[in-house]
Amino acid sequence: MIRSWRNLSTLAAFRPCAQYPARSASFSTSSAARANRAIVYTQVGHPAINLRTYTFPTLPLPSPGSVNIRYRLSPINPSDLNVIEGAYPVQPDPDMLLSPDGDLFVPGNEGLAEVTAVGDGVQSLSVGDWIVVAKQQSGTWVSARTVRAEDVVKLPKGDVSEASAATITVNPPTAYNMLREFVDLKEGDWIIQNGANSAVGQAVIQIAARRGINTINLVRNRDDFEELEKRLKALGATHVLTYDDLVARRQFSKQVKEWTEGAPVRLMLNCIGGENVTKMMKVLGLDAHLVTYGAMAREPISIPASPLIFKGLVVRGFWQSRWYETHGRKDREELMRAIINLRLKEPDHEIVTIPGGLDDEEAGQLVRATIRRVSEGTVGKKILWRIEEPAD
Amino acid sequence: MIRSWRNLSTLAAFRPCAQYPARSASFSTSSAARANRAIVYTQVGHPAINLRTYTFPTLPLPSPGSVNIRYRLSPINPSDLNVIEGAYPVQPDPDMLLSPDGDLFVPGNEGLAEVTAVGDGVQSLSVGDWIVVAKQQSGTWVSARTVRAEDVVKLPKGDVSEASAATITVNPPTAYNMLREFVDLKEGDWIIQNGANSAVGQAVIQIAARRGINTINLVRNRDDFEELEKRLKALGATHVLTYDDLVARRQFSKQVKEWTEGAPVRLMLNCIGGENVTKMMKVLGLDAHLVTYGAMAREPISIPASPLIFKGLVVRGFWQSRWYETHGRKDREELMRAIINLRLKEPDHEIVTIPGGLDDEEAGQLVRATIRRVSEGTVGKKILWRIEEPAD
């Protein structure tokens, strides 16, 4: 639902939440005297313009089957910005707790939270548990929220850092699942990927290396290429190349054949798009899969008929959100356990705290300034929100 | 193996075949006094220039496990011309019976033959049986040949016309398999295809109609569109459109939605390529498959990331030759039986007889003149060779 910009003016006044049930004695560990804060928008548009913060009161007791959670860290992912721009196929539902009029949306698809109160009938969770919400567009850019226990996956608390846990539901599972769902890869097999320095790309390198799978990794040319190559090789990359190396196509194909000693390259992962994909594709062997999970160049891929017909190439996509939709709680927990057990390197990150001492106007300015930095593409690491509970 | 053009001059003289085994009393129904004829080439190049005919003696008795066959009708398929041009990924082996030097190639991938002699140990075949060879590039443009019984599929003689049987191994199975191998289509489902007037396209229409599957069929605009539409609808087409109708994309999508009453289009078949494919793709539903089996426009297809990632689109190819390679005799026979039982309309065709009375020079001229007609693309129907045994 898209409302006009003018609706935002109504947010300035605190909105008493008449729909809250009466507090009960067993209610939460949070102090009722402290309130919560969400990053919100009322209509799709540029996030560096449209985002505000919004303060709301302490959560009521969770209803049966639900839990209250407090977010510890919530990352800014590129797809979050697409959602706010309206350029993503899934939009969050309006947040009816924040505004019964259905005119407020909370972005954020990922984050680490802690359970603060447990509703009746929830056996699997306790206060203090670390959890992630495996439901897409659940709105994680918020200090606290009530969620259905069935949408929650518990993490083993001591086994994973805060930043790793806050970024565990999207990128590492994308890498993990793309490496197992399409081609039955064995030790010694070869794969190729572009955008190898992305969060997913780095997870692919690490997971493949753990399984003894060789990776050919393409990145943009840059002044500090040697340094990046060294860093990706330290993660387990077999070979690192730049897109410039694709220009001499014959040489590239020959080089790959030498590396693989003629073994087929069985899987290609693509998060870029454009003409380089067609060039990379030429080294793929019989019955290979080309899996697209992003489109950073915002260009389609061009596929000649010949590899489709004669080489059995299969071109498809992967979307972790869809995976969660089509898999139950047990599969999700197994996935999280498997990923934690891989002990992937914590992502390079920066935490941006929204201090509790700021009022909503100041907090909103900080949010928009941070988004501007992300949009400029110069940060070079993952930014995570830490949204403090606003002071009285 | 590609030899120089000059080698052809050696063909003028009849080549005695010293490698033939001694004749046995049980040998064949053919008269030893009559010889055979093949259409041949010695090097890849334009078929209207490079093809010759070549006369060779009566076949020896088939060795154990083999049968001798006489071809009744062998079609000219577009891929045959690609093979002769060297523009196909599979080339025939040199015909070592015709020339032990390995410098003669016999084109032809399809055709109806009759068994004329049966080698020891072959239980399943008798003299007079109608058969097809389900082995790619076996060289069917020949009056007679010895083949391994295991490569042969027997047809029920009275159940199918000569022209249908001669064109049964490539196009109808391509249509039949594409409609069953990728998407589990149910009665009432919708599919879309381009090149709907091609041999495969017409088979798709008929097979889909038998199964209660609705087809949206795209063809080139032409003066006699209404006539073609009527003809395809008589075969069972649900709707027939021209590529011009794709230009008004919104209208096209809306039209399709009205027809399908919102049901998803689950399969798209493509033998053309180019930008129209991207336009047609937009009407596909969740988890649809786009299957390419040809590239008449000789242009790649352009695939945006969004349908791959968010709609689960799978883009792949189909090649009937590969299917035969990966399926055994039982599967092949079942396939032929299933297709014969569908009673598809006999293809519009013209039979070009290479009369036994012509010498090789005259016969070669007739072959090249026929190929020129096919290359011009104005024949409008399938041409089938009937290669008579040359007179003494």
Automatic annotation (TrEMBL), chains A, B:
Q: What is its EC number?
A: 1.3.1.104
Where found, per UniProt?
Mitochondrion
Question: What's a single GO CC term here?
Answer: mitochondrion
Where does this protein chiefly localize? mitochondrion
> Start and end of every Enoyl reductase (ER) domain?
49-384
SUPFAM superfamilies, per the entry: GroES-like (SSF50129), NAD(P)-binding Rossmann-fold domains (SSF51735)
GO annotation (BP), single: fatty acid biosynthetic process
Its keywords, alphabetically, are: Fatty acid biosynthesis, Fatty acid metabolism, Lipid biosynthesis, Lipid metabolism, Mitochondrion, NADP, Oxidoreductase, Transit peptide
Q: Which GO terms describe its molecular function?
A: enoyl-[acyl-carrier-protein] reductase (NADPH) activity
Q: Which reaction does it catalyse?
A: a 2,3-saturated acyl-[ACP] + NADP(+) = a (2E)-enoyl-[ACP] + NADPH + H(+)
| ATP-binding as UniProt keyword | no
Q: Give a yes or no for keyword Transmembrane in this entry.
A: no
Q: Which domain of life is it from?
A: Eukaryota
- Protein family membership: Belongs to the zinc-containing alcohol dehydrogenase family. Quinone oxidoreductase subfamily.
What name does UniProt use for this protein? enoyl-[acyl-carrier-protein] reductase
